[in-house]
Amino acid sequence: ALRALKGDRKRLSTIASREWIEDNTKVTIPANKRNYRKQKDHVKVMNTMKALKKQLGEEVKEGRPKGSGTAEQTVREWQESHPAGKKADCIRETGLSKPTVYKWWK
């Protein structure tokens, strides 16, 4: 159903409200949780709340957890232990995605 919608982009952009897409494709799309604010205003409110929480000393999750490492490290370690190894072998053995392995391969 989504492929059919993608084929007719002009029509989709003019009539495709969230409700219309749900009715015609049987795909549920939840409403946004911004309390009817525009995205710009919502981001401003949320950034202010985050700054206030930091100021009060509350824990605020930001970015990658400290010490979690990156896929780069995994690929490098695999390459060191398998000098004649191929990208496909690295993908199979590490379980990383193909684009990730290609990104960090040297």
UniProtKB/TrEMBL annotation:
<feature type="region of interest" description="Disordered">
    <location>
        <begin position="56"/>
        <end position="87"/>
    </location>
</feature>
<protein>
    <submittedName>
        <fullName>Repa</fullName>
    </submittedName>
</protein>
<feature type="compositionally biased region" description="Basic and acidic residues">
    <location>
        <begin position="56"/>
        <end position="65"/>
    </location>
</feature>
